[in-house]
Amino acid sequence: MNSIEKARSISIWIFIVPFVAVNTCLLLITQFHSLFHQPDILHNTFPYFDGGASISRTARPYPSWLIFKPAMFLTSYLLIRYWLFNRDIIKYFKVDHKNIKRIVFFGIASAIALTVHSIFLGVKFDNDLYKLFRRIIMLSFIVFEIVAQAYLVATYWSFKDKLKGYINPFILNLKIALVSVLIIVAVISIPIISLPGDDFFGIQLKFLKHALEWDYFIGVITFYLLTFFMWKKPN
Description:
Layout: H1 2-31, H2 47-50, H3 55-59, H4 64-93, H5 100-120, H6 128-158, H7 169-193, E1 199-200, E2 203-204, H8 205-230
Antiparallel strand pairs: 1-2
Helix pairs in contact: 1-4, 1-8, 4-5, 5-6, 6-7, 7-8
């Protein structure tokens, strides 16, 4: 089936493009200081562990945004194609599945939210409503993305017997486990990171938020890496 091969091929790029872009921005701003203004430079941080900076902090300054923004626009486009290909796959196996519209809606909505977030990244406007708008857009991307992923794995699980010969069932189980962890982490962490101030029983919330952002980002895009390995190559 053509849509399976297209979804498989595009999924690896949805992992590679943002992974390379985000980590290139991190490498540039921590190692190539001559490219940046002095206030933008970061020293001795690996935010996946120490939470020394947010993703936007590394991607916002020039020239990092020249890499980050085009990469996110491309990722958004690939995401839209990915969810539409999965719609076609589901229709092939069960044309009237109840989750099709939900998957397409939340999947495309996540891509749109990512595009909007990327457009406004680095735009400085000292207004509380604007800052709230940016937070809502970023949160919307995360929520829409996780909901779309959850509906997709639940849908494939619902007719997994029909997928024999097309997928590696172990990888499907891994995807279900990954989405479950992402949901649990989100439910636990959102109330904590929403607390005012930067201290929570001796824990520096700022660093916790940043580390969580980087690690959660890896978890979200790993879903697409697993997609690549889940679908079997056509004979």
